[in-house]
TrEMBL record:
Location of the FPG-type domain: 238-272
InterPro entries attached to this UniProt entry: FPG_cat, FPG_N, H2TH_FPG, Ribosomal_uS13-like_H2TH, Znf_DNA_glyclase/AP_lyase
Matching Pfam families: Fapy_DNA_glyco, H2TH
CDD domains, alphabetized: BaFpgNei_N_1
Reactions that this protein is recorded to catalyse: Hydrolysis of DNA containing ring-opened 7-methylguanine residues, releasing 2,6-diamino-4-hydroxy-5-(N-methyl)formamidopyrimidine
Keywords: DNA damage, DNA repair, DNA-binding, Glycosidase, Hydrolase, Lyase, Metal-binding, Multifunctional enzyme, Zinc, Zinc-finger
PROSITE patterns membership: FPG_CAT, ZF_FPG_2
Species of origin: Aquipuribacter nitratireducens
Domain of life: Bacteria
The Formamidopyrimidine-DNA glycosylase catalytic domain, residue ranges: 2-117
Protein name stated in the entry: Fpg/Nei family DNA glycosylase
Family that this chain belongs to: Belongs to the FPG family.
Amino acid sequence: MPELPEVEALARFLAERAVGRVVARVDVVALNVLKTFDPPPTALQGLAVTGVARHGKLVDLDVDGLHLVVHFSRAGWAQWRDPAPTAPARPGKGPLALRVLLDDGGSLAALDLTEAGTQKRLAVHVVRDPADVPSVAGLGPDPLTLDVDGLAERLAGSRQRLKTVLTDQHVVAGIGNAYSDDVLHAARLSPFAPAGSLDPDELARLHAAVHAVLAGALGSAVGRAPDQLKDDKRGRMRVHGRAGQACDVCGTTIAEISYTDSSFQYCPGCQTGGQVLADRRMSRLLR
């Protein structure tokens, strides 16, 4: 799933290439991807892209006052194709879900929104105001804007596990499954620690880890083409996706907890005092 660093890098990439171009056509290849009907995608035709922004893990193309807002979910992503393909986009078994053809006055480029897998959660909204998109309206603050006290306020009173709270977009916007694993590893905190019970030292470590991990990832991602960002992210993970490998900090074997359709990883040596969280529901280990 693309998270804050990748979506911010994509937004900056599109700001450099799409702004100033005119929407020649929007081809909706998979009807399920479109979550709004008024205004229709055809309303974008003939209008110029005037800006690109990020809201949490969503990207927002401002098309002369109308907004094309995209939530990539788990398996969605974007491709920039310049020049645009000459063959028309057609429904089929491929990953292409929606294509925006952009004219710079002499040639066409294509912004292709794609989705792998079978779950089909990629969501595209055409709206007059980004706040009309429920997943934008309910976002918490960007984690990189929070100081220690601000982060403490977001966690205060929560009895939920720290892993759950960090990935709750209503609490902070932009952190997903992968970066929360690496943030908690850097902070030396258990994913099962109760979020509202961190002491001042733990809060300071968590705040520092959020900024170090996200800022480092952002610095690596910005300037890369969209098709390079997933591999870049994968190569930078310290614990996420590395179950069974040795932790590069303490040498302990990285462990995993699996759910029906997701999993997360952590280092018992760095985060849980050497203890393995044997069962996600029954473990009483909190920190």
